[in-house]
Amino acid sequence: MYTSEERCNQRTQKRKIYNVCPQKGKKIFIHVHAITQIDGHIYQCLECKQNFCENLALIMCERTHTGEKPYKCDMCEKTFVQSSDLISHQRIHNYEKPYKCSKCEKSFWHHLALSGHQRTHAGKKFYTCDICGKNFGQSSDLLVHQRSHTGEKPYLCSECDKCFSRSTNLIRHRRTHTGEKPFKCLECEKAFSGKSDLISHQRTHTGERPYKCNKCEKSYRHRSAFIVHKRVHTGEKPYKCGACEKCFGQKSDLIVHQRVHTGEKPYKCLECMRSFTRSANLIRHQATHTHTFKCLEYEKSFNCSSDLIVHQRIHMEEKPHQWSTCESGFLLGMDFVAQQKMRTQTEELHYKYTVCDKSFHQSSALLQHQTVHTGEKPFICNVSEKGLELSPPHASEASQMS
Fold this sequence. Notes:
This is Zinc finger protein 322. The strands form 12 sheets. The protein has a 4-stranded antiparallel sheet with strand order 1-2-3-4.
């Protein structure tokens, strides 16, 4: 396989052999493998029959056929056909956007991206989706959009056979196999596989929250979180369960809910092989293997503080509310309700649910509240075998469906 430079050298040698065109009496230079020059001006690629006025343009065309990409990025080792493409690409790493819109001051890495954007100001939206009527400034954007209706995913990963509707999504996915993370934060040097991940991360340093709700003035760093929040106001629940037709505002809530029907428990404890429907439940469970509560009278240990309390009541034969502070730092002698009230007054609400913005003192309370949204009933009554969300009257009778 010849490089474009070698082909160019061969063309120069061939020109000394073929001198005159028999039809027009003008000079004609022919390279039998790649190129024909007619009238000293037209260069034709014999692979695709495309004509060019300049030899350099022909070389660029040849590289699309040979796959040759001689220009390499020093930051991520990506290669390009033209030096101009490399220069445009390097602006991503340098966060440089030299092409500014005079109408709204938006900036872009490439002049073509600016041209496409400017059509939105001129009202020129030439490409309309026949299915939903949405307009686009470029035909390529319409083509990608239509795949959301057809379900077409033409970009296939050769490693795991996963398909994607966009080539950029495939490129990003491949990095999960290679471990490549070309986008680096200049503040903390943390690296990311996708540019959007880097942009979102940088907002943790700048404090920027560009997505603002016009209903309640809440703001968000991530567009996805903002979209989910807006559904609180609109009541929209686009994710529907195929088994019971219950609807949800978040896809993650639907996935968790569907495990009620399928019985799937993908989160497994490697210590005892117990399985759970939620990752949060697994994390909470794993703490039982690492934290123990010791009895001061006997050398017996418990995984839960509540088990220790019950044990102490049995062997001490004392009223439970007369105990002093135990070794683990809990006020066991206090009435539980009074203790919870004190926590409410003194502690901040650390656990917040993004769907309805309710906050809780404990992660367990947040997990129980989430079942209101997901419809999940992870506990079963030993007497009636009825599924429960762990309501107080049944709490003592309930055993977790692990």
